[in-house]
Description:
3-stranded antiparallel β-sheet, 30% strand
Amino acid sequence: MNKHLIAAFIATFAATIVAGTAFAAEVPASVDARKCKAEYPKASLLNEEQGAVSMAFLVSPAGDVVESKIEKSSGFKNLDKAALKALTACKFTPGKKDGSVAQTWAKVDYVWAL
Length: 114
């Protein structure tokens, strides 16, 4: 094997190790959305509104929601509010940073379908 090929292999191997380490440094918080059912808003039922809302939740090390926000609307304000309210009340599994429980963000999609 020539010196340049060995150097390229070592550089690639080192970059893979560093990238893998950085990736494993944080595990986001999670929630079982099936256990956190939101009640379909009555007005949305009458208007036959459906859609998916994408949300983000900042979760404390204890599993409680510290902050929440809508990242992508379902297109219907009532559906977005109901999903955000229901999931904010849920107990999350906290995330980890560098192997320790920590405050992290969780992304959750909630689908409203009739």
